Structures are given as structure tokens and as C-alpha cells.
Amino acid sequence: MNILAFETSCDETAAAVVADGRALRANVVLSQADMHALYGGVVPEIASRRHIEVMVPLTEQALREAGLTRPEIDAVAVTCAPGLIGALLVGVNFAKGAALALQKPLIPVHHIRGHLAANYLAHPDLAPPFAALVASGGHTLLLDVRSYTDIGVLGSTCDDAAGEAFDKVARVLGLPYPGGAALEALAESGRGDAYRLPRPKGGDNPLDMSFSGLKTAVLNVINQAAQKNETLDRAGLAASFTRAVAEILVGRTVRAAEIAGRRTVVLAGGVAANGHLRAALREALAAAGRTLYVPPPALCGDNAAMIAAQAFYEWREGRTAGMDLNGRANASVSG
Ligand code: KG4
Ligand code: ZN
User: Residue ranges of the domains in the chain?
Assistant: First the structure.
């Protein structure tokens, strides 16, 4: 079952082909980051317009890389939610056109379910049930993945997403957009105990999280240093911030695995590329007698291969769409 998938929910335009949810045949990602860097963040209309320009050549490149002709595609999949609505609509409409032209099923995929499925591409032995942490620019979710399509939410952020906090702190440290990777590089030469930062709680649910107070604390450190005319240890602040985020995420994830009673834990989303988080979570879970699965960094960020992988399991459950499929800016991962 060769699935051709598209992902346009934010500022990456992506097309990919995956066979039977596991075998990667082609994975083409075009990042628009440098177009948005000028503005310090994603400009939705620019994102949509760029998706329109590159969808066709990107799809042709994916088919070439897969070594497949159009009739050899068995289904078309697309990210239908959540994300920037204008950007999503480009992919949804393009996928409808492709499914109509090829006379093949159309499979809608939730973006966060796609992030989880990046792990199916990387780990042939991985299968639900498992507990999962998905940390991206828009979401921070602790999930109980009961089956490929039956997913419950155990906890989430009450304010900023973890990736959003990375991007905002990177910005105040004068790093270019997108900030996560640049902040990680800066943190490498700093000490994680250089600054004392809070670990805010997220409310009544012990598995909820909060990152906005941490971001404000970083801002205060920077402002106080400026007022006192002290030199800021930028690398130390980046490392201390990373350690604080990782501690919040690691503690909640270990607890989530215990509460859900899962021995296997999956990490996914753009923030999963962070080396400190990967190592800290692996160590804490091993100490708790649990096993961590993480995709390689190249599959952590937005891509269409993860959408094609999840699409296979959605299709197996008969979760296809008609030509009235619409995009949605917000939608629960539980579906
Ligand atoms: O999943 P993703 O590519 O897009 C969304 O669905 O939002 O996640 C992007 C987020 C950004 O906030 C970015 O700064 C963060 O992932 N990120 C990182 C790293 N690489 C990307 N955060 C921390 N460390 C990294 N190495
Ligand atoms: Zn994403």
C-alpha cells in the first residue's frame, strides 16, 4: 500500500511516499524558515502562498525519489488539522485534487498523530500501546496511545507549548528564528546550573504543564543583568532554560507512563530533536524500568513521511474522507 502524503500545516511544505505505514520511499521537505526569519516568526499568508508555489514540483520530486509512477500510488493522505488554517487548506485542497485525479482514497491525518507515527518509520518493532510525549511549536501533550487510532490525552500545557517557549527565549537571547536548534547550539557551551529558574506547575492535573512563567523568569534575568550593567552568561542561561524545560517534561512523562501503566514510552515533535531532552528522558525512563523510543532528529520536525505512516493505520480503520474534507485550525488528537 503506497501512500502519497502532504503536510502544509505551518512553514514546511512536504510530500512523501511510505509503503504500509513503515517503509520510507521518499521524503521531501522544503522549509520556509528563512522567509519567515525576517519577521521573527511565521507569517501565515506568506506560508500559504509559498505552499501553493511549491506543492506541484515537490510532489513530482517525491514520486521521482520513490521511483513510482502515478498509477502505483494507492492512496493520498494529508494533514487536515491542527495548524494555520490558510496553510492547511492548501494541502487539503491539493490532496483532494490528487485523490480525484488518481481515483484513489483520501485519508485525513491529525498532525500530532503524524508526529507519533514518525516513530513507526524509525522503529520497526514499535507498536501500541505506549505512553507518549509530543512537544512541538504548537503543542505539548502527554498521551496514552491505546492503539494506532485510539489515543487519549493524559496532560497538556496550560499556556505556551514547549517549542514556543524555546522560540521565545531564543528570540530574547538574540538568536535567529526558528530558535530551538540555535538555542541548543548555544546551550552546549553553557552550564545548566548557571541560573536558578523556576519549574512552574500546570494546575490541578499533575500531568499538566506550564512554560510561560519560565519564559518570564528568563526575561527577568536578562532585564536585571542589563539594569545592573552585568554581562549576561548567554550560554549559561540557554543551558539553564533547557534544563528547566527538560526537567518539567521528563518528570511529567515518567509519571504519565506510571499512571497509564505503559512500559514503552514514545517521544515526538520538533522539540524531540533536542539532545539534552532525549538523553535526560532516556535516563529517567531507564531508571523507572521503561523503554524510550525517539525518531532520528530528521524525522522530529514537520514532514510528510510521518503523515503517510499514520495514514496507513487510519485507512485500515476505514477512516477515509470524501471530497467535502475541510481543514481545521484546532482539533483534538483523540478524534
Ligand atoms: O513539530 P514542529 O517541527 O512544528 C510544529 O508542529 O510546531 O516543532 C517545531 C518546534 C519549534 O518551536 C522549534 O523551536 C522546536 O520545535 N525545536 C527545538 C529543536 N529543534 C526544533 N526545540 C529544542 N531543541 C531543538 N533542537
Ligand atoms: Zn509539527
Answer: 2-116+299-316, 128-294
128-294 has the same fold as 2-116+299-316: yes
pLDDT at 202: 87
Handedness of CA 34, 35, 41, 47 (dihedral sign): negative
Ligand nearest to the CA of 180: 1
Which residues have CB under 6 Å of ligand 1? 10, 136-138, 163-164, 166-167, 178-181, 184, 269-271, 273-274, 301-302
Assigned C-alpha cell, 184: 541548543
Residue nearest to atom 10 of ligand 1 (CA): 137
* Residue 335, pLDDT score: 85
Contact of 62 with 17, CB cutoff 8 Å: yes
Q: Please report, as a single letter, which amino acid is at residue 154.
A: L
pLDDT tens for each residue of 64-97: 999 999 999 999 999 999 999 999 999 999 999 9
pLDDT on residue 11: 97
Q: Which ligand is nearest to the CA of 33?
A: 1
For ligand 1, the distance from its centroid to the CA atom of residue 97, given in whole angstroms, is 30
- CATH number, domain 128-294: 3.30.420.40
Class of domain 2-116+299-316: alpha beta
Distance 178 CA to ligand 1 centre (A): 8
Query: For the whole model, what pTM was predicted?
Result: 0.98
Q: Which residues of the chain have pLDDT under 50?
A: none
Q: Which atom of ligand 1 is nearest to the CA of 170?
A: 14
Classified as helix, coil or strand, 225 is helix
Under 8 Å between Cβ of 36 and 120? no
**How close is the Cα of 229 to the center of ligand 2, in Å?**
39
